[in-house]
Each structure stands twice: as C-alpha cells, then as structure tokens.
Amino acid sequence: MSEGDAGGRLVRPFTLTGGRTRPSRADFALITTVTAVDPPPARAPRPQPEHLRILKLCAEPMAVAELAARLDLPVSVVVILLCDLLEAGRITARAPHPVTRSAPDLDLLQKVREGLGRL
Amino acid sequence: MAGSEHAAPAAPDAVKILIAGGFGVGKTTMVGSVSEIAPLRTEEPLTVAGLGVDDLAGIEEKRSTTVALDFGRITIGRDLVLYLFGTPGQQRFWFMWNDLAVGALGAVVLLDVRRPESSFAAIDFFERRNIPFVVGVNGFHGRHPYPPEEIRQALALPERVAVVLCDARERASARDVLIALVDRLIADADGRADEGGRIR
Ligand SMILES: Nc1nc2c(ncn2[C@@H]2O[C@H](COP(=O)(O)OP(=O)(O)O)[C@@H](O)[C@H]2O)c(=O)[nH]1
Ligand SMILES: [Mg+2]
C-alpha cells in the first residue's frame, strides 16, 4: 500500500486533474490561435524542450498549422503537446471563427473583403 | 478574457479559405503570391490523420506517406487573420479535404487551362458538399485562350460560380480571385437575409 502511494507521487502534477476534463485534440483546429500565458502560472511544471519551443513561438499568437510548420513536426504531434500545455495553464487557445452556411456573418465577410481590397 | 491574471497579447479571430485543384495547377504559387509569409508547409503522416484501414486501400505501396499542406496568411486587421490552405492535389488525399473544409469560408478551385480535367474532382468535391467556391483559371505563360463564359459552360457551372481568369504568380491577380469568392459569399449572405434566412 505505502509503496503504491510513493509511486503515485512520481506522477506529474498536471496529469492529476481530479475530474476536470482534459483538453482533447478536438480543442485544436489548424487555425486555432495559441498564445503563451505570460508570466506562466505560479506552480507550472518545468516544460519539456519541445514544449519550450512551442512557448517561445507563441509568445505572440500563432496558429496551430504555423506552429507545426515552424517546428517541422506533424500537426497531430503538435496538438498532443498543445494539450499538455493547455492543461498546465501555460497557453490559451482561441477557436477559429465559427462558419455556418445557414447564418453567414456579413460583418466578418465585409471585413475580409475590405482587407483583401487593401492588398 | 475577464478574470485572466496574465496579460497575453490578444489572439486574433481566424478564418480560412482553401485553394484546391489538381496537381501542378499553381496552388502553392497562388498561396505564395498573396501571403504575407513565405508559404509554409506542414506534413501530416497518413496513419495519424484519422484514417480507417479501408481508406488505406490502394495506397499501400507508399508506406510512409505524408500529406503536405501549404499555407499562407493574410492579416486583415489587428483582430482578424485569413489563412489560406493549399489542399493536397492527389486524388488519394481527398480524405484530407473533409477535415480542411470544416470551418472554411469557401474555396478557390484553380484550373490549369491546358488540362482542366485535373481539377474536375475538386469542383465535384465542393459542389457535393455545398461549399461555396470560385474557379480561378490559371493561364500558364499568361495565355487565356478561352473567355470565362466558355469555360463556365464547358464545366457546366451555374451562374453563381464565378469564373475568373488569373495568373497565380501575380499578387493582384491572385487577390482578385479571392475577392471574387468573398463577393460571392457576401451576395449569398445578402440573399439569405432577403429570403428571411431560407437556404438555397
Ligand atoms: N508560367 C507559369 N507557371 C506557373 C504558373 N503558376 C504556377 N506555375 C508553375 O507551375 C508549377 C506548379 O505550380 P505549383 O504552384 O507548385 O502547383 P500546385 O501543385 O498546384 O501547388 C511551378 O513550377 C510553378 O512555378 C503560371 O501562372 N504561369
Ligand atoms: Mg503545391
């Protein structure tokens, strides 16, 4: 019993989520925008090297696809790393603008149109 | 952001447009000519792209296949970014388009005027899924032997699908194709408002 307890303490703290929902891959689309939380939360675990590379890149907001390209890693791998970071409170993730064909966002479309016109 | 103790730069809102079409029609070229960054490439190994075993039938010969996606970025404003994705051209990568198409505003189907048939599959894809698209006719070497109307008829495209002659290498030309798409989206949105939200 006591041996089991000792083993339990080796588990990294942020994997012990106590019923909180773990972030899932579904939280990250190709154009989900990821931003490092700065300063990092007080009791954040020391990030792994790959996590650190991500945190550096997204000091300014960066899309998941761009992170993957700059890290030269498959998107699916980057998303797993991002789940870790989100869970540890080290990044925030902004979902893409929702697109519904039945209720298009005219304001948004006009903004895009004007932006392209300025190119 | 209420209650956030950490001052992070505000993430912009993000939208995307797909650039589709057959292999070698100029997709990467078009992404590059309008993007503010050099087109980036990301690789996704097939096995982790959410494939069932059946889907792999026919491509067993390429064991370590990866799917390459090109993408570019256009900052529309401080709070809005448009991403462009060049879709994988080979037919065996169609399954990727489903994922890519989710949440896209619409698509540009690029066509090499010398071999239009290489983009038929892309046209079918967006037609079947009711995803708004325009056709950009890339005139290689700047040659445009057919007027847009003739191309529309040959492709049996309805009036609402714009056919735009372009040169994928030219920024202004590539931009105009994107604008044609957004104009169509705006017209659709206006039409919907007029019809009281009825779809069709
Ligand atoms: N002459 C000419 N060459 C083009 C044009 N568009 C693309 N290309 C070339 O055609 C080749 C294929 O283009 P690419 O953008 O890679 O096609 P993709 O497979 O659709 O991404 C490249 O060597 C391009 O430089 C064009 O408008 N005119
Ligand atoms: Mg290409």
Automatic annotation (TrEMBL), chain A:
Xref: Pfam families: DUF742
Name of this protein: DUF742 domain-containing protein
Domain of life: Bacteria
Lineage: Bacteria, Bacillati, Actinomycetota, Actinomycetes, Kitasatosporales
The species this protein was found in: Streptomyces fumanus
From TrEMBL, chain B:
Keyword 4Fe-4S attached: no
Stored InterPro entries: Gliding_Motility_GTPase, Gpn, P-loop_NTPase
GO molecular function terms listed in the Swiss-Prot or TrEMBL record: ATP binding; GTP binding; hydrolase activity
A Pfam family that the UniProt record links to this protein: ATP_bind_1
Keywords: ATP-binding, GTP-binding, Hydrolase, Nucleotide-binding
TM stretches of this protein: none
Top-level division of the source organism's lineage: Bacteria
Keyword Lyase: no
Family: Belongs to the GPN-loop GTPase family.
Record protein name field: ATP-binding protein
